[in-house]
Write a structure and sequence with these properties.
mainly alpha, globular, 12 helices, Growth Hormone, Chain: A, about 325 residues
Length: about 325
């Protein structure tokens, strides 16, 4: 339960900012919407770049420490978004946060499995995954509310950091038994990607793309609806990933499902930004001078059409995924 609460709050911390970043970074840095979309692709790339090194870090160091330090780095980058002033620095922050988020996600799953008895690890996988998806829903809902009633990132950053700190406090209370190092190589896919589940992973990317492409829109509540749908699909899809795994690969299966969802959401946000535009708004100051700012402009009809196509493609792709699953499952 402590690890589930830690995971829930960590995902609230991350996803509170996602609906806000595009609309804030365009005027803050004076960049195009396409450039803002690029930061989410860099974030996603960071998650996958660090993944092959997680097994080594978890073997050489205490897994709980890997989790705590990764959350700490993630929160540091969150504060950095308030002060970033150039596009290259924004990309650097996104890459660092993506890497730290990927490590924290993978380390959290490993810790949750380590503290669960063998006979209940599948159930533990489900509970831990549900906590993350519920955190996504609450985080995006909070971010959407702040987008409507507050300006800038200030309040969202405070909430994000507060949730992250409490998440670390929950994780620190968990006792993880000592495990002697087994000599894992520097780079491998253990506890990172289950290659046997590549087809369901693509399907999860397509499903998660739908709420992702809707997140930057004003309000963001349509994204919350589809995130609730994603929450309902979490249990059956997690079971599918687990049943495709061999012995001692349940954690790897869960991590693959997690990363596929995060990648889908981030790609969706990037696509929305690429299909959007920025408008220049001029205003007059008290001294008579005029300033111009770039603001995010989203074509609602176009984005809803893209989301509709995403629903159709994801639904049809599931027919292929289910056939593959029935043929390849080992549990």
């Amino acid at each position: 339960m402590r690890m589930c609460m830690a995971n829930f709050l960590f995902f609230v911390s991350i996803y509170t900012l996602l609906p806000l970043l595009p609309s804030v970074m365009v005027p803050q840095l004076g960049i195009s919407t396409g450039e803002v979309g690029g930061m989410f692709l860099v974030f996603a790339a960071g998650m996958f770049v660090v993944g092959p090194f997680h097994a080594y870090l978890g073997d050489e160091h205490k897994r709980k420490h890997v989790l705590i330090y990764s959350i700490l780095v993630t929160l540091g980058v969150t504060v950095g978004y308030l002060f970033v002033d150039t596009y290259p620095r924004l990309l650097l922050l996104a890459a660092i946060q993506g890497g730290a988020f990927g490590l924290a996600t993978t380390a959290g799953i490993t810790v949750a499995i380590d503290i669960t008895t063998s006979s209940r690890r599948s159930a533990g996988n489900m509970a831990y995954t549900l906590a993350a998806r519920l955190g996504m829903v609450v985080g995006v809902g909070a971010g959407a509310w702040m987008k409507m009633y507050t300006e800038g990132l200030g309040m969202a950053v405070y909430l994000s950091v507060a949730c992250g700190v409490v998440s670390m406090l929950f994780a620190l209370q968990v006792h993880v038994a000592f495990r002697a190092p087994i000599g894992v190589g520097y780079c491998n896919f253990d506890r990172f990607l289950l290659l046997r589940s590549w087809l369901p992973a693509i399907n999860m990317v397509l499903i998660a793309f739908i709420p992702g492409v809707l997140m930057p829109m004003d309000g963001g509540y349509s994204a919350v609806f589809f995130l609730i749908v994603l929450l309902a699909l979490t249990i059956p899809f997690t079971k599918m990933f687990v049943k495709l795994s061999h012995h001692c690969q349940r954690g790897t299966a869960n991590t693959t499902c997690h990363l596929a969802i995060e990648a889908g959401v981030l790609i969706g946000i990037a696509v929305c930004c690429l299909l959007s535009d920025s408008v220049e708004i001029s205003s007059t100051l008290e001294d008579g001078s005029r300033i111009a700012r770039q603001l995010l402009y989203v074509d609602f009809q176009l984005i809803y059409k893209v989301a509709g196509v995403g629903i159709i493609v994801a639904s049809l792709f599931f027919l292929l995924t289910y056939r593959y699953y029935k043929k390849m499952k080992v549990r």
